[in-house]
Structure formats: structure tokens, C-alpha cells
UniProtKB/TrEMBL annotation, chain A:
SUPFAM superfamilies: ARM repeat. This is AP-1 complex subunit gamma. Belongs to the adaptor complexes large subunit family. GO terms for cellular component: AP-1 adaptor complex. Its main location: membrane. It comes from Hucho hucho (huchen). Residues 23-566 form the Clathrin/coatomer adaptor adaptin-like N-terminal domain. The keyword Hydrolase does not apply.
UniProtKB/TrEMBL annotation, chain B:
Its main location: membrane. One of its GO terms (cellular component) is cytoplasmic vesicle membrane. Belongs to the adaptor complexes small subunit family. It holds the Pfam family Clat_adaptor_s. Residues 1-147 form the AP complex mu/sigma subunit domain. PANTHER family: ADAPTOR COMPLEXES SMALL SUBUNIT FAMILY. This is AP complex subunit sigma. PROSITE patterns: CLAT_ADAPTOR_S. Keywords: Cytoplasmic vesicle, Golgi apparatus, Membrane, Protein transport, Transport. GO terms for biological process: Golgi to vacuole transport; intracellular protein transport. Part of the AP-3 complex, an adaptor-related complex which is not clathrin-associated. The complex is associated with the Golgi region as well as more peripheral structures. It facilitates the budding of vesicles from the Golgi membrane and may be directly involved in trafficking to lysosomes. In concert with the BLOC-1 complex, AP-3 is required to target cargos into vesicles assembled at cell bodies for delivery into neurites and nerve terminals. It is found in: Cytoplasmic vesicle membrane; Golgi apparatus. It is a peripheral membrane protein.
Length: 648, 162
């Protein structure tokens, strides 16, 4: 059997393949060769074959038959073999395969090997893919290595310990003694990984957190040395001494100082120092500043420091680098609840970010803008936000529209402004408005009694322009159905009343029914609106009784029946809706479903009381409309009618 | 924690894929494809962070990437990592590769993917950052390479360079 080809050869061959099929063929051929080579138990070339297998695995081809071979390589005496074997184990094996447990013994031996690099390989593999059983078995070895003086091994042992703790949290106690003098190390690698280990332990256990609080002075000292020490070529990155370590320490300080006054007190000075002294021209400086800001905001810092932090974030917003702006917006979003006033100062910069080209930045700026809206700035902010709604990408429109509605509801300075804002949203982004906002809007409009005429007029004009945006059409149809008489009589006070006849209005509504642009839901709205107008207008309307949509058909037939047989009930049935009551959740009003037998659970003085002893009860059930009689006169429970409109 | 480190070229061909969480092979390939799709759409002058695709954990995880010539270096991280810090880490990684391979280019990564894995193993372990000092990393990688070479000599086995 000729010697298996080298990895380099294989790669070269595969790169000559011109199609996926050709590549697949080459790979299959090579896999077959590798398989037979494995069967021959060839020690010399095993390493080469597994390397090729890993390459093929990266391209996406199955390589599971190489798992056992990796184990054989790990057990070999040669460093070259072990290296590939461990790499293969990390790439191909995981705790779901039973094979991985066979590694445990090998790793145990290698953890005690005489060569530090072999020990390093073992630690690395255990720390990457060790299962809980393996971790339990080998935790003792890791703990031993955590105490060694060899810094190369010590730093790997620290991260391996983190993995062990993640897999088997009960073993955390075991590593406690070893952490005693981790921080007195000079080697930055060890320091770095030790801080990671301490962070993990503090995050997992409140007891550990309490225990490690006493390390705060030591951490502060280390940080101070990093900043104050002069240029150190070993750890320098763009002029700053070991920024990675600085960031890690700041993060640990954050966790330690979080709800503790004394620790926070101890950190105040160093945080102020870092915040003011760090060079901001390069990314590394900004990374440190960013971490400092997050720490200041999280611990119990004094207010001067907090203001300093927010100002740093404000400066970040003006930075040319997009990444910096992005992280600044993210952090401001987190702090806007607690330090609202400080963030308000940067409102104009934030609003400018709405015009940024970057999608991620725009989204964050939008969320932040909504968080900053309050009673004082509502007019200005809304102008900006509506402009944003006009020009933004479709993916934002739904969220922006909802945000605008919410903000408008909370802080609207006047009813007219409110209605205008709603109109603006419906006309510019009408098709992106969420379905549940239609009932909310209807409720809102009903509640503004004095604006009914104005509202219906504006909505009618909008309908004339454009009938493609369904939520707009639905709200308009509903309003015209309710307030059509106001429209026709030209009663508008707020603006110039338009001259419109009953026929024109009905034509528009009928147009909606036949238009291809209208969805079945919209047609339902307009059909019902036409029905309602039959009482408010003097001319009688013809109903569309045949429609493919079952809902519409049923409605139309029942309305027809209503006209023909129960025409005397019509005015009462279609009386104008009373003002609906809002629930605390701002959603549609809680519906009380009743029929003639039971009293409603919520007594309501606005609505006429239900009859207790009907003399002659007629219930016409049409989408749960119940009609009751009291001694010959008729009325309808408005609650139930409400339900019907909402359940369209 | 770093969930995955991916390197792929402008056409989506993977040059290195290391996952620090368990996914099966098909999912791994799908993640690579999905990540390529998300990252290649980005304009040149937008920020280097995006939310992870659905397969790799959705909005809880971030993709932090850098585009160098024909290669994308993508780190998928969760919220415990500093985004700006990871950007610096990618820079250190690439500079280390540059030192180890002498003006590294895509071909170096293609033919020596196992070496790249070895270098990465000295920087990131179990999803956490192990060492960030470039010189330190290079010293250790060189020492291990020397060990391999000396074995070849001692054991008189055929040239093992792959």
C-alpha cells in the first residue's frame, strides 16, 4: 500500500476541483483510502491521516470514523501525535459520544507529564470539551496545577478550573485555597486568567462574592500600577499597558462593588483616574473607558462620578468610529431609567443618530429616543420621530409606529395634536401598523368626543387619497360608520368643513368593498359601516349578500334579514356607541358577555340596566349580538356590541 | 464567553472553524453559512457588531467581525464579553498570525490550518481568553513546533510536515 498522501497534497488536489460534485468525489476517494489505512493500524501515518480528516471535517464532510483514531494518537508517546490527537478530540468529540470517556485516563497521565507542553495540551482539551464526569475525575489534578509556579501551566489551569466549575458547580469550593495568592503573580497571563476565574466564582456564588470582597484593595493597586507605570514594551498595545487586563479587572470590580458601599467607596478614586487619564484616540483606550463607564453605573458611585460617566458616553456619541457610537447607545439605553436627567442632556445628539446610515445604530437611537420622550419635549421629539418614520427602512416601521402611539398616548399635549399624530402615522406607515393597534385607536377616537367631526373629516379625506393601507382604511370605515352624519352635515370646528353628500360617502364605502386591495377584514369593517349609516343617513342601502368570505356572507345575510323583518329594531341596534372604558392595560375593554338570564358582574351606571324579567324576549344571535326586550321596547347591551366590533 | 471563532473568505468558504459549544456537524455548517450570509451583506463603513443569527443563539449573542482583504474573522460571543475588547483581540490574533507566517495571506491559512489552530489554542481556551501578549504566544508556539521537529529527527519517521 503506497504511503498516504500528505495533507498539503490533499488540499492542493481539492482546490483543483471545479464543481461541488468533483470535490465530493475526491473527498470520498480519500476517505476510503484513510479508512483502509486505519484498518491496517498504521502508526506511522495515523497522524497524517487524522490531519487530513480534520481538514475534510472543516469543509463539512462526515469524519466520525476518525474519533477512535484520535484517541490512539493521544495515547502515543510522540508530541506530534498528541498534538493532532488532542486537536481532533476537540473538533470531533463531545460529551454526547461515549468514546470521549476513554480519554480520561490519557488526560490524567498527560496532566502529570514531564513536558509542560504536553500538560498544556491536556489542560486545553479538558478545558474545551471536558464532560462533567471527566471534570469530576480530573478536578484534583487541575487544582494541583493551579498551585504550580510554572506560569504557562498556571494560566491554563485557571481557565480549565473555570470550565470545571461551569460543568460541576459543586466543585467550586475545592479551588478556593488555590486562589489565595493568585493575584500576587507578576505574569500578566496568569493575572488575566486568575481574574477570569475569580469573576466566574463571584458570579456563581454570593458567598464567594462576600469572601472575595476583601481583594478590592489589591485589585485597585494592580490597576493603578498598570496605568501609572511607564511604557512597558512587553504589554503595550497602542500605547496602553495591557488593556485586556485592565478591562478584566474593571469588570471584576464591577461585580464586587455592585451592592456594597464600602467597596464602591474604595474604587471611586481609581475609576475617576482611569476615566480622565485614558487616551481615547485608539480603540483600546475606548474599550477601557467603556468598561469604566459600565462599572461606574453599576456600583454605588457618587453622583459626580456618574455624571462624568454619562458625559463620556455623550462624547462617544460624537466619535467618528461607528463601533464607539454603537456601544455608547447601548449603554445609554441601559442607564436611561436610572439617570434620566443626565441622559436627557445628550438628547439632540441621540436624535441626530437617527439619521445615521448604519442599521444597528439607527435601531438603538430609535429605542433610546422613545425612552427619552417626556411631557416637555414631546412636540419636538415627535417631529423628529415622525420624520424618521417617513424615511426609515420597512423593518423599523412597525416598532416605530407602536412607539409613536404609546408616546402620544402618554404625553399628548392636546387631543387635536393626538389625532393629527395618529393620522400622520396611519397615512405614512399605515400598512406596517400592528393589527392590535386598530382597536386601540378606535377606542381613543371614541373617547375624544369633541374631536369626532374633525377626525372623521380627516379620515375621509385620507381615504379619498389612498385605500391601500389596511389599518388606515379600517379605522376610517369604522369612524365613517359611526360619525357619518357629522361628516355630511359639515359640522367641523377645527378646520374648514368639506362639502360631502351621503351618496358620495356611501360610494366610497362601497368602493372599499369591491376593491381588490381590501382584505376580508377591511371589507367586514366597511360592510358594517354601511349598515350603521343606514340609520344615520336617510337613504336605504343595498347589502351584498353573496361573497366568498363566509364571515362577510353571514353578516350580509343577517343585515338583510334585519332590514326586511326587523326593520323596527334597526335604529336601536345601531345606536351610536357610548364612550368605551379603558382598562389599566390600555388594551381593548374587558368584555362582559351576557345573555338575558344573568346580570352583568360589573354594574355600570352609564349603561341602562338589564331587564330582570323580560316580558317577551327575542334574541337575535348574530355574532353574539343579544337583543332584549323590556315590555315591548328594545335596546341592546352595548357591551356585547363592543365585542362584535373587536372580534372582526 | 466566546461561542465560536470562524474564518471564511469572501465567498463563504470556511478557512477555520472552532466551536466552544456543542453543535452537531450539520448545524455547524449551517451556522457557518448563516454567519457568512449575515456578515457579507454588511456595508464597508458600518459598525463591526451584529446580532447573532438564529442558529447560534439569536439576539443574546453578538457577532463581532473584522474584514481583512479576502478574509472575514468572526467571533461569536455572548453578553459577558466586551465588544470593543474582542475587536482588539481579533487584531492581536491577526498580528500574531502575521508574525508566525511572515506576511500571512489566505493561502497560508489554507495549507496550514492545523498550525492556525495551534496558535489559536494559545490565545483562547474553552471559550475564554487565555493570553493576549503576542510575544508570549509566539514563544510558546515556536517551542512546541521545535518539539515536533526534534521528534521527527529522533524517531527517524518520514517527514511529518503536513
Amino acid at each position: 500500500m503506497p504511503a498516504p498522501i500528505r495533507l498539503r497534497e490533499l488540499i492542493r488536489t481539492i482546490r483543483t476541483a471545479r464543481t461541488q460534485a468533483e470535490e465530493r468525489e475526491m473527498i470520498q476517494k480519500e476517505c476510503a483510502a484513510i479508512r483502509s489505512s486505519f484498518r491496517e493500524e498504521d502508526n506511522t501515518y495515523r497522524c497524517r491521516n487524522v490531519a487530513k480528516l480534520l481538514y475534510m471535517h472543516m469543509l463539512g464532510y462526515p469524519a466520525h470514523f476518525g474519533q477512535l483514531e484520535c484517541l490512539k494518537l493521544i495515547a502515543s508517546q510522540k508530541f506530534t501525535d498528541k498534538r493532532i490527537g488532542y486537536l481532533g478530540a476537540m473538533l470531533l468529540l463531545d460529551e454526547r459520544q461515549d468514546v470521549h470517556l476513554l480519554m480520561t485516563n490519557c488526560i490524567k497521565n498527560d496532566l502529570n507529564h514531564s513536558t509542560q507542553y504536553v500538560q498544556g495540551l491536556a489542560l486545553c482539551t479538558l478545558g474545551c470539551m471536558g464532560s462533567s464526569e471527566m471534570c469530576r475525575d480530573l478536578a484534583g489534578e487541575v487544582e494541583k496545577l493551579l498551585k504550580t509556579s510554572n506560569s504557562y501551566l498556571r494560566k491554563k489551569a485557571a481557565l480549565c478550573a473555570v470550565h470545571v466549575i461551569r460543568k460541576v458547580p459543586e466543585l467550586m469550593e475545592m479551588f478556593l485555597p488555590a486562589t489565595k495568592n493568585l493575584l500576587s503573580e507578576k505574569n500578566h497571563g496568569v493575572l488575566h486568567t486568575s481574574v477570569v476565574l475569580l469573576t466566574e466564582m463571584c458570579e456563581r456564588s454570593p458567598d464567594m462574592l462576600l469572601h472575595f470582597r476583601k481583594l478590592v484593595p489589591q485589585l485597585v493597586r494592580i490597576l493603578k500600577n498598570l496605568i501609572m507605570s511607564g511604557y512597558s514594551p512587553e504589554h503595550d498595545v497602542s500605547g496602553i499597558s495591557d488593556p485586556f487586563l485592565q478591562v478584566r479587572i474593571l469588570r471584576l470590580l464591577r461585580i464586587l462593588g455592585r451592592s456594597d458601599d464600602d467597596s464602591s467607596e474604595a474604587m471611586n478614586d481609581i475609576l475617576a483616574q482611569v476615566a480622565t487619564n485614558t487616551e481615547t484616540s485608539k480603540n483600546v483606550g475606548n474599550a477601557i473607558l467603556y468598561e469604566t463607564v459600565l462599572t461606574i453605573m453599576d456600583i454605588k458611585s457618587e453622583s459626580g462620578l456618574r455624571v462624568l460617566a454619562i458625559n463620556i458616553l455623550g462624547r462617544f456619541l460624537l466619535n467618528n468610529d461607528k463601533n464607539i457610537r454603537y456601544v455608547a447607545l447601548t449603554s445609554l439605553l441601559k442607564t436611561v431609567q436610572t439617570d434620566h436627567n443626565a441622559v436627557q442632556r445628550h438628547r439632540s445628539t441621540i436624535v441626530d443618530c437617527l439619521k445615521d446610515l448604519d442599521v444597528s445604530i439607527k435601531r438603538r437611537a430609535m429605542e433610546l429616543s422613545f425612552a427619552l420622550v417626556n411631557g416637555n419635549n414631546i412636540r419636538g421629539m415627535m417631529k423628529e420621530l415622525l420624520y424618521f418614520l417617513d424615511s426609515c427602512d420597512p423593518e423599523f416601521k412597525a416598532d416605530c409606529a407602536s412607539g409613536v402611539f404609546l408616546a402620544a398616548e402618554k404625553y399628548a399635549p392636546s387631543k387635536r395634536w393626538h389625532i393629527d399624530t395618529i393620522m400622520r402615522v396611519l397615512t405614512t406607515a399605515g400598512s406596517y401598523v400592528r393589527d392590535d393597534s386598530v382597536p386601540n385607536l378606535i377606542q381613543l377616537i371614541t373617547n375624544s368626543v369633541e374631536m369626532h367631526a374633525y377626525t372623521v373629516q380627516r379620515l375621509y379625506k385620507a381615504l379619498l387619497d389612498d385605500i391601500s393601507q389596511q389599518p388606515l382604511v379600517q379605522v376610517s370605515s369604522w369612524c365613517i360608520g359611526e360619525y357619518g352624519d357629522l361628516l355630511v352635515s359639515g359640522q367641523c370646528e377645527e378646520e374648514e368643513p368639506i362639502q360631502v353628500t351621503e351618496d358620495e360617502v356611501l360610494d366610497v364605502l362601497e368602493g372599499l368593498l369591491v376593491s381588490n386591495l381590501s382584505t376580508p377584514v377591511t371589507r367586514g369593517y366597511s360592510l358594517t359601516a354601511i349598515m350603521k349609516l343606514s340609520t344615520r343617513f336617510s337613504s336605504v342601502v343595498s347589502i351584498y349578500g353573496s361573497s366568498i368570505d363566509v364571515e362577510l356572507q353571514q353578516r350580509a345575510v343577517e343585515y338583510n334579514a334585519l332590514f326586511k323583518k326587523y326593520d323596527h329594531m334597526r335604529p336601536a341596534l345601531l345606536e351610536r356607541m357610548p364612550i368605551m372604558e379603558k382598562t389599566a392595560s390600555n388594551g381593548p375593554t374587558e368584555i362582559v358577555q351576557t345573555n338575558g338570564e344573568t346580570e352583568p358582574s360589573v354594574p355600570d351606571t352609564k349603561h341602562p340596566p338589564l331587564v330582570t324579567q323580560p316580558a317577551n324576549q327575542v334574541t337575535a344571535r348574530s355574532h353574539d349580538i343579544s337583543v332584549f326586550t323590556i315590555d315591548g321596547s328594545f335596546f341592546v347591551t352595548d357591551d356585547v356590541l363592543l365585542n362584535q366590533w373587536f372580534n372582526i | 464567553m466566546i461561542k465560536a471563532i470562524l474564518i471564511f473568505n469572501n465567498h463563504g468558504k470556511p478557512r477555520l472553524s472552532k466551536f466552544y459549544e456543542h453543535y452537531n456537524e450539520d448545524t455547524e455548517q449551517q451556522i457557518i453559512r448563516e454567519t457568512f450570509h449575515l456578515v457579507s451583506k454588511r456595508d464597508e463603513n458600518v459598525c463591526n457588531f451584529l446580532e447573532g443569527g438564529m442558529l447560534i443563539g439569536g439576539s443574546e449573542n453578538r457577532l463581532i467581525y473584522r474584514h481583512y482583504a479576502t478574509l472575514y474573522f468572526v467571533f461569536c460571543v455572548d453578553s459577558s464579553e466586551s465588544e470593543l475588547g474582542i475587536l482588539d483581540l481579533i487584531q492581536v490574533f491577526v498580528e500574531t498570525l502575521d508574525k508566525c507566517f511572515e506576511n500571512v495571506c489566505e493561502l497560508d491559512l489554507i495549507f496550514h490550518v492545523d498550525k492556525v489552530h495551534n496558535i489559536l489554542a494559545e490565545m483562547v481556551m474553552g471559550g475564554m481568553v487565555l493570553e493576549t501578549n503576542m510575544n508570549e504566544i509566539i514563544i510558546q508556539v515556536d517551542a512546541q513546533n521545535k518539539m515536533e521537529k526534534s521528534e521527527t529527527f529522533i524517531f527517524q519517521s518520514p517527514r511529518q510536515d503536513r
